[in-house]
Protein: Putative ABC transporter-binding protein
Amino acid sequence: MSLKSTFSAATALALITAGGAFADAHSATITIATVNNGDMIRMQGYTDQFTAETGIAVEWVTLEENVLRQRVTTDITTKGGQFDIMTIGMYETPIWGANDWLVPLNDLSAEYDVDDILPAMRNGLSHDGTLYAAPFYGESSMVMYRTDLMEAAGLEMPTAPTWQFIREAAAAMDDPENEINGICLRGKAGWGEGGAFITVTGNSFGARWFDEEWNAQFDQPEWANALNFYVNLMNDYGPEGYATNGFNENLSLFNQGKCGMWIDATVAASFVTGADSTVADSVGFALAPNAEGVEKRANWLWAWALAIPAGTQQEAEAKQFIEWATGKAYIELVAANEGWANVPPGARTSLYETPEYQAVPFAKMTLDSINAADPTNPTVDPVPYVGIQFVAIPEFAGMATEVSQEFSAAYAGQQTVEEALAKAQAITTEVMEAAGYR
Structure:
């Protein structure tokens, strides 16, 4: 008997024993806020099956990433009560859990197997050892590249490339006459959009947000080196308007065959090799790059996870959905219908022990990238914070959004790199002084 059929039978028996909830379809409705990426949209397509199994109806509020962050943050801090489940990540979860804003997930069923969650994901979604959000998928970041263009350029992608090689390859693959950009990268404002990418790029050049005394570091040469390298790379070999491109925009460009390389979330691998990609048969993978002589790579650690805001009137139903959507049975459901390459990656140890998934071309690189990420030691020089593409303090989201806006203005040619860094230094210094860190 499969995991899927076991789950369904057990759920049906429990509901019938409790009073025949199957006869009373849609006995409850939960509202879920989520991000508009492919895996979450795919999950929505299976929601009818969850409703059929449980009698619980689901209403979706699907939002662009920056809007989602704003909406759920406003709702949780004002106790608005709009949502029974929120899609959040490793930045919000420990902070909100510490504030008692989330329902602890410490009573999930034995069948759910919490211990199967990858340690990196479980630790990042916990506070003081208590899990507050369940990962729908986990990710790091890596290089995705056109193997056909790389071969035509006479180059071979290393397993662990440097930024210097990335620039050389971008120059070789750039073909404006045929609408092929050498490289596509995020420039869109937002701390979790372009802000995340430039932060890990900074890490890979030896930069950091703060020193051990919480002094802002945007006036240091490592940041100037990182930001100048990025701007020059993208101005020379990136797409027009890259200052407004985020994950979804670059995914579309890559799938249309308009990018020689793309460095972004490992979760994109199933989409660039899927049915909607015009270059699916010519995609290779490598670790995120580092600058020569710097040990840190430009890879992050993240999970899009499902959490329950404290005060919901549908806690039991919300937990049922979380167990369904982030459990082993859902993985088998997607694999059976769409193939193993399309299951949510990066969340469960058992997935990477499954022979069928081990045969997926990007599985090992995804796991290697996740395992290489160290949020407790994210930079070359010591820092007082935890987090790779973010700083795990409540003040970060606001000030990092402002900093990312200044950087995007530099990408768009509206100010110089030096001006953007000076403003970033002023923004972060003012916030940290007002918050009492210094």
Confidence is low (pLDDT under 50) at residues 1-25. Residues 140 and 369 are 6 Å apart (CA to CA).
